[in-house]
């Protein structure tokens, strides 16, 4: 199946109700983010992207995915945290999550930041995606997701500059 025609762009406040709607579907059984949580993330200046389905002529765009990144510190000790990645279940498996992740990692690499994230231990597809992009498991957070009590792995990816330096040193 070919990848859908999507446009990645900065997430806007007008998109937050749709993000909250998707959260309820994607994270039911846990504590899905409300629109106000997304608004707080944008207010703090964190980097959030939306994946917008390119519509047929005359139809409105549809937000089918979103992702966010927080960066703290400065080079060479910056750290980034992937806050969330979500894709509408009807559009999963078509490269949208991968495109969002790559865009976040490009941003993190522009700060030379080591990037961290948490992922449910039972989310094999996400773990495989993260590993394919250089993440390694560095910890386990018991009962991280609430109220379900699901465990999470903490994963880490070194900045691209550090990986390149390691390759040139060997």
UniProtKB/TrEMBL annotation:
Positions the record marks as coiled coil are none
Where on the tree of life does the source sit, at the highest rank? Bacteria
**CDD domains the UniProt entry points to:** NAT_SF (cd04301)
| Start and end residues of each N-acetyltransferase domain | 6-160
Q: What is this protein called?
A: Ribosomal-protein-alanine acetyltransferase
Alphabetized, the UniProt keywords read:
Acyltransferase, Transferase
Report the PROSITE patterns cross-referenced here: GNAT
Q: Which Pfam families does the record cross-reference, listed alphabetically?
A: Acetyltransf_1
GO terms, molecular function:
N-acetyltransferase activity
InterPro entries, A to Z? AcTrfase_RimI/Ard1, Acyl_CoA_acyltransferase, GNAT_dom, N-term/lysine_N-AcTrnsfr
């Amino acid at each position: 199946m070919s990848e859908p025609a999507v446009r990645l762009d900065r997430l806007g406040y007008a998109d937050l109700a749709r993000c909250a709607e998707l959260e309820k579907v994607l994270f039911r059984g846990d504590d899905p983010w409300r629109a106000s949580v997304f608004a707080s993330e944008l207010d703090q200046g964190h980097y959030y992207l939306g994946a917008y389905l390119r519509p047929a002529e005359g139809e409105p765009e549809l937000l089918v995915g979103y992702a966010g990144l927080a960066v703290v510190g400065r080079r060479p000790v910056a750290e980034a945290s992937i806050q969330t990645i979500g894709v509408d279940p009807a559009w999963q498996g078509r490269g949208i999550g991968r495109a969002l992740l790559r865009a976040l990692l490009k941003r993190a690499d522009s700060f030379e930041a080591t990037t961290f994230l948490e992922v449910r231990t039972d989310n094999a597809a996400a773990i495989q995606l993260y590993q394919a992009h250089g993440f390694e498991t560095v910890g386990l957070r018991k009962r991280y997701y609430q109220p379900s009590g699901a465990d999470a792995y903490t994963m880490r990816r070194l900045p691209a500059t550090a990986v390149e330096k390691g390759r040139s040193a060997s």
